[in-house]
Structures are given as C-alpha cells and as structure tokens.
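Action item from last week, closing it out:
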Amino acid sequence: MDHLKETRIDGETAYNGRFLKVERDRIRLPDGAVTTREFIRHPGAVVILPLLDDGRVLLERQFRYPNDRVFIEFPAGKIDPGEDHLACAKRELAEETGYTARDWQFVCTIHNAIAYSDEHLELFLARGLVAGQARLDEGEFLETFTVTVPELLDLVRRGEITDVKTIIGSFWLEKILAGSWAPAAV
C-alpha cells in the first residue's frame, strides 16, 4: 500500500482552539508532486448504545449549533487526554443520562470524517442499565427518551436520525440483537 501513501514534508497549526485544531501540512503525493492538506485534529470520542432490560434503547435530543437544529443521537462524548475509552464511555453515560451499566461490550471504531479530520469514535454497548441523576456539563442541554429497536430503525429510514454515529450504531445494534454480529467483551 506504500504506492498510495502521502508523506508529510512540513506543516503548521492554522488554528488552535480549546477543542479542535486545524493543521495545514505540505505533503508529497505518491507521484512526487507537492500539495497541501488541511485537516482537523480531534481528540476522539465514545458513543454508547444503551440497551434497557426491556429491549428499549435510550436516546438523546440535543441542539447542534453548526447545523442549527435538534438531532436525535446516542449518548456520546469527547475522550479526555490519557483517558481510557471504556472509562470515558461510563463517565459520559452517567453524566448525560444518569444511567450506569453493569455490562459493557466494545462494538467497533469508526472514522466519521476521513477526508478532513482524524476523529475516531469508539462504540460501546451498555446493558444492565440502572437509572440515576444526570450531571450535565455546564452549557450542555439535552433530553433523553426511549424507543424500541424497530422504532429506532424507522427513525433512521424516515430521515429523522441523520447523525452518522447513531445510524451506524443502530445498524450494529440490530445485528447484535439478531445474533448476527457479536461485540467484544471488555
């Protein structure tokens, strides 16, 4: 695969924010030509597929400023520097929904914006949920609700769920519950 590799020559940080960084690199293409690549550095995030004992799925509604609308999503959150991915998933589930889970399984890693970001999302299935009190971050506003898996898939089909991590998680959840795919124990 070396014949496809692009090689960094040098670069700079074009923007350094609290959360995201934009890098501008000069690179050498496989044919020897030189060009630039601009991309976002992202710390990564976790996504939780919370499955209640009755088979219902816990979801969130949250306003997302860049798209100026409320989205339906699985609980998710940014991985802090040096934070274990599973520890982050447990923290985010408790903070956003108040729930804790007795059983955790790793589902997969996805890269949701490969052309312009190094962001990766670590998906976890959470079962054996126990309700508690949410502890939202300052400035975070969301509401939770539950649906059945068929209702979840119908929300995707009708275009009411357009968030890629939630769509992918929904399809994984369908396969897991059908016994076709098995997540890994953690």
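Closing note: Residues 137 and 158 are 31 Å apart (CA to CA).
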